[in-house]
Fold this sequence. Notes:
197 residues, 2 helices, rod-shaped
Amino acid sequence: MEDIQRRRQAESYERSxxxxxxxxxxxxxxxxxxxxxxxxxxxxxxxxxxxQKEDDLDLKTREIDELVAQHQRIIEVVDxxxxxxxxxxxxxxxxxxxxxxERESECKDLRLTVSEHEALSTDLRVEFEAALIxxxxxxDQKDAEIEALNNAIEKLSEQMYQMEDETDRMKEDTERxxxxxxxxxxxxxxxxxxxxx
Length: 197
């Protein structure tokens, strides 16, 4: 009877330990799912940031195009004005030369401004391409991490199923041992009764 009681206590302890392990694995799976959700949120934020950078680059490009068009219009207007003034009054050649020098200085300033904007556009394009490459690398890394997490979840699921099968087998073994002990006890009781007779 003491052996049976000890075995029952051992079985109860094993069942409690198995339930605790199952709960622990369930908590681990929930933690993995939370990490996956956080990764998805981070990827969405990066996508929004990338779109904002693309919008900023488009805006800078339009500003540069407008400045170039304005520069061309100014040059055309000035050139037409010069032509008309030369044709109308050749006596004002020296004055027109001064005006021309002033206009050329303005054009140089405008060209310098355009060059600065072009350099800025190039820098922004380089930064955008670098950011895009980084985002692609991070996306690949996140995909690899997600795949690793999925593999870990599958392994945990397999382990859980194996533990459940092992638990069922142990229950069957325990029931079989209990039946064998019961049969042995009845045989011994019958033998003792026969010896008394």
